[in-house]
Design goal:
The chain is of the alpha/beta class and 213 residues long. 29% of the residues lie in helices and 25% in strands. The chain has seven helices and nine strands, in the order αββαβαβαββααβαββ. The strands form two sheets. A seven-stranded mixed β-sheet has the order 5-4-3-6-7-9-8, sandwiched between helices. A two-stranded antiparallel ribbon has the order 1-2. α2 packs parallel to α3 and α3 runs parallel beside α4. The protein is globular and about 45 Å long. The chain starts with 5 loop residues before the first helix and ends with a strand. The structure holds S-adenosylmethionine.
């Protein structure tokens, strides 16, 4: 995360979220539309877009939940995965479709809550950089991109439900988050730390749930 004095965080987030941004993520041009989570500002999306493609076995079906700009989904598709991506936010869905078109890859982007858009389907792997701050994000810029309900409600639903969709899931937590130990506990004892990345003193942890790959 950016290190700003606390009183400046929300004004900066509002200013940033109101603008479109163009990034180069691993050689891939990524547009971030106004109101959509920026995968470079917070680094997690850009990190996953660099890390996960190396894990793809060509032709595998990957699902990304909460795709935002679609940066991770596009990187997976470039690595020859068959990719479906979803987001609850219509602006993110439009943004991910735009980036898939700009990148020249096929990504099936759908709108809806968690696994609802893929009900009845099976995938090889599910990945999600889910919001886990408490609350519903009301009033904050990009509130739904950061807030996942009380007591890690969204994270808990993801953990409880991914097994009906895929044998393996990956999700990320930041150790800089004050309630990291509680968020880690919400993943359950079966979650394994498989990668860590340091950015400006912050550790971002990637966890594997379900069957090992
Ligand atoms: C932290 S952002 C991650 C975006 C992108 N994957 C990345 O890493 O840059 C979380 C995303 O999850 C989406 N989201 C929040 N609640 C959701 C839900 N219940 N179902 C699906 N997507 C959701 C938000 O709209 C946001 O785009």
């Amino acid at each position: 995360m950016l290190r700003l004095p606390r009183p400046l965080v929300v004004p900066f987030a509002r200013w940033h979220a109101a603008r479109a941004h163009l990034h180069n993520v691993g050689g891939q041009a990524i547009v971030v539309l106004p109101g959509v989570f920026d995968p470079v500002l917070t680094k997690v999306g850009a990190w996953l877009a660099g890390e996960l493609p190396g894990w793809v076995r060509p032709g595998e079906r990957w699902l990304e939940i909460g795709t935002g700009s679609g940066v991770v989904a596009c990187a997976l598709a470039r690595a020859e995965a068959r990719v479906t991506a979803s987001d609850i936010d219509p602006a993110a869905v439009r943004n991910a479709r735009l980036n898939a078109a700009l990148t020249g890859v096929m990504v099936d982007v759908r709108e809806g809550d968690l696994f609802a858009p893929v009900a009845g389907e099976r995938f090889d792997v599910v990945v999600a950089n889910l919001p886990f701050w408490p609350g519903n994000g009301g009033g904050l810029p990009l509130g739904r991109a950061f807030s996942g309900g009380e007591d890690f409600a969204l994270l808990r639903r993801f953990v409880a439900e991914f097994g009906g969709i895929a044998p393996t899931a990956y999700t990320v937590l930041s150790e800089a988050f004050a309630a990291f130990p509680e968020a880690r506990a919400a993943l359950g004892s079966g979650a394994r730390l498989v990668r860590r990345q340091r950015y400006r003193g912050e550790w971002m942890d990637l966890f594997e749930l379900g069957a090992c790959r």
